[in-house]
Amino acid sequence: MVHGHDQRAELRLTRVSLGFGLLASTMFVTPALAQQGAAGGGIQEIVVTAQKRVENLQDVPIAITAFGTEKLDELQVTDFDDYARYLPSLSYQTSGPGGSNVYFRGVASGEVANHSASLPSVGTYLDEQPITTIQGALDIHIYDIARVEALAGPQGTLYGASSQAGTIRIITNKPELGKFYGGADLELNTVAHGGQGYIGEAFINAPISDNMAVRVVGWYKKDAGFIDNIPGTLNFPSSGIAFDNAPFVKKDYNDVETYGGRAALKIDLDDNWTLTPQVMGQKQVSHGTFAQESGLGELQVQQFNPERFDDRWYQASMTIEGKIGSFDLTYAGSYLKRTVRGQSDYADYAYFYDKLFGSGEFIYDNMGNPINPNQYIVSTDRFTKQSHELRLASPGENRVRFIGGLFYQVQKHNIEQNYVIDGLADVLTVTGTDSDIWYTKQIRKDRDYAIFGELAADVTDKLTVTLGARVFRYNNTLVGFFGYSAGYSSRTGEAACFGPPIVGGSPCTNLDKGTKDTDFTHRINLTYKFNDDVLLYGTVSRGFRPGGINRRGTLPPYQPDFIDNYEIGLKSTLFDRRVRFNMAVYQLNWTGIQLSFLGANGLTEIRNAGDARIRGAEMDLTVKPFGGLTLSAGGSYNDAKITKDFCKFANLEFDCTIPGPDITGPDGDPDGIPDDNEQLAPAGTRLPITAKFKGNIVARYDFALGGGRDAHLQAGVVYEGRRTSDLRLVERAITGNLPAYTTVDISAGVSSDRWSLQLFARNLFDKNGAVGKTIQCGETICGDPDGVSAIGGKIYTYPTQPRTIGLKLGTKF
Questions:
Q1: Whether the predicted pLDDT of 162 surpasses 80
Q2: Residue 317 falls within a domain, yes or no?
Q3: Is 700 in contact with 24 (CB distance < 8 Å)?
Q4: Domain holding 192: CATH number?
C-alpha cells in the first residue's frame, strides 16, 4: 500500500505521465497527419441514437462516449465494471455483481442505496427501454452488443426522472433480414490470489422469410473467487457467549455464476412498418462478499453467516417503428420482472450493539436463558416494471425538426427482509416469523408520467437552435410493516401499528405514506458548425430526481432534487479523419440534495440536505498517425463541493444552530423534546465518491501477418484519483478515503476471416485499488471510533479484481 508522501508522489507521477503521454502523442502525430491524407484509413465513424435519431456521434451536440462492438471486444468488456473503468466522466460504488450505483460528473453524495432510499441519479436503458430498478440497474452480460453509449450530464428532456446526472444506453445487435451467420467465443482465465474462470458465448442470426429474421444469443460465465473468509471468533460481552465461523471458512469464496440469453425477432410488415419483439433473461448467483475487511490482510474477511445472492430477471419488450406521412412514429414498451434472494452476514451489528450498549442482555430463549445474539439477514426483493413511450419525429433533414411524445412507467418493489436470531424467544419474535428480531415487509411503488418534446431549427447553414421541455408528474407510495415485536419494543414495530395488514405476510401496518408532484425540466442548445468536421455547442439543461418516502413516521417525505447544467462543448474531426478531439466544460448546480444515511435503529433516512456546485471538464482524443496504430485518451476533472452548510436537520436558513424536529430520544424513539442540530459538513466540503481526476490512455497496433491473418498488440492504462468516502466529516474520518490507483491492461491476438485468438491480462501489476467502502451499521457504531472493542471497527473495502490473465478463442460462420 502507498501512504503519505509516497501516495502524493504516485498521484503526481500518474497525472504527469498521462499529461505528457497525451502531449507527446499529439506532437508526434500532428506534423505527419497533414501529409497522410486518407491513405491507410482514418478513424471509424460511430453512429449513435442518443437523441432518439440515428446520427453520427460527431454531429450530436452533447457529451457522449460510445463503445461499439469492436471496441467492446478490444477492451475485453463482459460486464458493467469492465466498461465503467474506461468512462472518465463516470464513477461508481459497488457491493458486488448487481450492486453497482452509478454517478456522472461528481453528482454523488455517498448515499445509502437500499430499498428505502432515493431513486438512482443515472438512468440505464436496454435499447429503448429503461432498466433502472428502484435499487439500481441490471447487471447485463455484454455480448453481441452494438454499442454502449454514456451520456454525461442531465438528460431530463428526452429521458426523464432517472437521468438526472446522465444516462447509459446498451444497444443490442438487431436481427438482419436475408442473412445467415453467427459466432461463438470461449474464454479461460485465472485470477491472481484466486481461482479459475471461464466464459462461453454464442449467437446466430437467421432469416425466417423475406421479411422476417431472428437473432438468438446465449452466454455462460463463471467468475473465479479471490476473497478468503479466514477463521475468527466473536465473544459477546453481555452473555460471555462465543462462537466461530468454522462452517464458512473458505478460500476464494466470492465466485459468481452467470447465464442467460436473448432472442429478438424482426418483422417488416411493409416498406414503412417494422416490429421488433425481444425477450432477454439472466440468472446470476454470487457467493460470499466482494470486500476486504479492515484489520486483516488484503483480500481477507471474517464473516460468520452464509452469504449468497440469487439475482434472476427477464424483460419482454416490443418496439414498433413506422411512418405517418413523412413523420417517424415509434412505440417502445417493456415489462421487467426481477427477483433477488439473498443471505447476508449481520454479525457486526449484533456484536457492536452488545459491546457498546449491552443489547445482548435482552436476547434470550423461551426459558429466559441468554442465547447467541448473532444476526443474519434473509431477504427477498421482487421487482416489476413496465414502461411505455410513444413518440413522433419529423424528418431529420428538415431545417426545422421536432421530436416529442408521451411516457409512462410504474415500478413496484415488494420488499421482504428477515433479521434472524436463531432460537429467539417467542415474545421477542415478530408475529408470523420464525425467529425474526426485526422484520420488513413493504411494497413501494414509483409512478412516472411525462409529456416531452424538442424543437430544433437551423437558423443558418451553420447555426442551430434547440429548445426542449419535459412536463412530468410522479406519484410514489410506500406501505407495509417494519420493526420489532411488541414484546421487544413498546413504541416501534408492532407496537406502532395503526391497522391490520395491507401487505400480505406482514403482521400489521405501521407505514402507509405517499408523495406526488408535478413540475418540468428544460433544455436549450446552440450549435455552431464551422464546417462538416468542427462544431461548437452551448447547453443549458435541467435534470431531476423524484421525491419519496421516509419510513420513520416522524420524518416528512423528501422532495425532488434538481441539477442545472451549463455546458460548452467542442467536437472535431481533423486531418482527414485521423484525429478526433471532443471536449466539454461545465458547471452543475445541484439543489435540494437528497442525502440518505443510516439513522437510529439502522433505518435509512433521506433529507434534502442543501446545495452543491460542480465545475469540471472532460475530453477524449483519438489519433491514427499511420497504418494500424491507434492512440486514444480520455479524462475528466471535477471540482465538486457543497455550497451551504450541511446540517443534521436541514432548514431554509441552512443554520445548524436551529434545533431539529422531535425524532429521537435516548432510546431511539420520540421523547417530546426537539432534537439538537449539528453541522455535519461545512460549506466547501468536497462531495464523495468521485475523484478530481480520472483518465485513461489506450494504444493499439494492428498489422497483417500474411496469409489472410491479422494481429494486434494493445496496452491500456486507467487512473482513478483519490476519492472521499462520505460527505459527513465525522463518518469520513472513520471510514477513511479511497486512495488513488492505476491499473494496466494488455492484450495480443491474431485473427483470420473465421477465427480469432487473444491473450490478455487485466490489472497486469495486480493493483489492490479501492472502488467502494461499506459498513454494516452506523459508522459511529460499527466503525468503533473510540476503539472500545477488542477487534476494532469493521470497515469493508471493495477492491479492484486482482490480476486476471485469460485466453479467448472465437469463431465466426
A1: no
A2: yes
A3: no
A4: 2.40.170.20
Q: Which helix (H) or strand (E) holds 169?
A: strand 166-172
Q: Give the whole-angstrom CA distance, residue 165 versus residue 614.
A: 12
Task: Assess if residue 656 is contained within a domain.
Answer: no
- SS3 of 109-121: the string is CCCCCCCCCCCCC
With CA atoms as reference, report the closest residue to 745 among 810, 808, 806: 806
DSSP 781-799: HHT-TT--SSS----EEEE
Cα separation, 608 vs 544, in Å, equals 13
Q: Into how many domains does the chain fold?
A: 1
Residue 668 in any domain: the answer is no
Distance CA 35, CA 42 (A): 13
- pLDDT tens for 608-621 read 878 999 999 999 99
Residue of 584, 454, 457, 471 whose CA lies nearest to 523: 454
Domain with 710, as residue range(s), is: 4-644+683-812
Q: What 8-state DSSP symbol labels residue 461?
A: S
DSSP codes, 29-98 = HHHHHHHHTTTT--PPP-EE-TTSS-EEGGG--S-EEEEEHHHHHHTT--SHHHHHTT-TTEEEEESSTT
- Quick one: which H or E segment has residue 594? strand 594-598
> Model confidence over 397-410: pLDDT tens digits?
999 999 999 999 99
**Helices marked H in 571-610:** none
Sequence-distant (6+) residues with CB within 8 A of 188 are: 196, 197, 198, 806, 807
The answer to whether position 677 is within a domain reads no
**pTM passes above 0.85:** yes
Question: Exposed/middle/buried for 468, CB within 10 Å: 0-12, 13-18, 19+?
Answer: buried
